[in-house]
Automatic annotation (TrEMBL):
Pfam families: Phage_holin_3_6 (PF07332)
Annotated protein name in UniProt: Phage holin family protein
Keyword terms, alphabetized: Membrane, Transmembrane, Transmembrane helix
Origin species: Carboxylicivirga mesophila
Transmembrane regions listed in the UniProt entry: 47-67, 73-94
Length: 123
């Protein structure tokens, strides 16, 4: 009887160890999937940002040269374009929590906790 009970306890122990190992493997797979999704998304966004930067650079140069010709001045167009970007930078800095922090926090929450869809709006 004791041998039978001991064998059953060993079987339960072995099954429990297998269950824990399976859960750990599942957690590792979910983590690998989430991290690979995150890094591939970041790589795509960085590539698009890089290309958009050059488009914006050449458009800015074209507008600055056009404004120089329009105002017949040396560098006036460049100062106007620089002032425009300074204004955009100040607005962006003022709205950084709404434009950057909250969306990033929400995307991380959705990435790692897909069932939880809303971030605490009080922050």
């Amino acid at each position: 009887m004791k041998e039978h009970l001991s064998e059953e306890i060993n079987e339960v122990k072995d099954e429990f160890e297998e269950y824990v190992n399976a859960r750990l493997d599942l957690a590792k797979l979910h983590t690998a999937e989430n991290l690979s999704r995150f890094f591939s998304g970041m790589l795509i966004k960085m590539g698009l940002f890089y290309l958009f930067f050059f488009v914006l650079l050449f458009i800015s140069l074209a507008v600055a040269f056009w404004l120089n010709d329009l105002f017949e001045g040396k560098g006036v167009g460049f100062f106007i374009v620089a002032g425009f970007y300074l204004l955009i930078a100040l607005l962006f800095y003022a709205m950084r929590k709404v434009l950057i922090q909250r969306p990033i926090i929400q995307s991380f929450v959705q990435l790692f906790f897909p069932k939880y869809t809303q971030y605490d709006e009080s922050k």
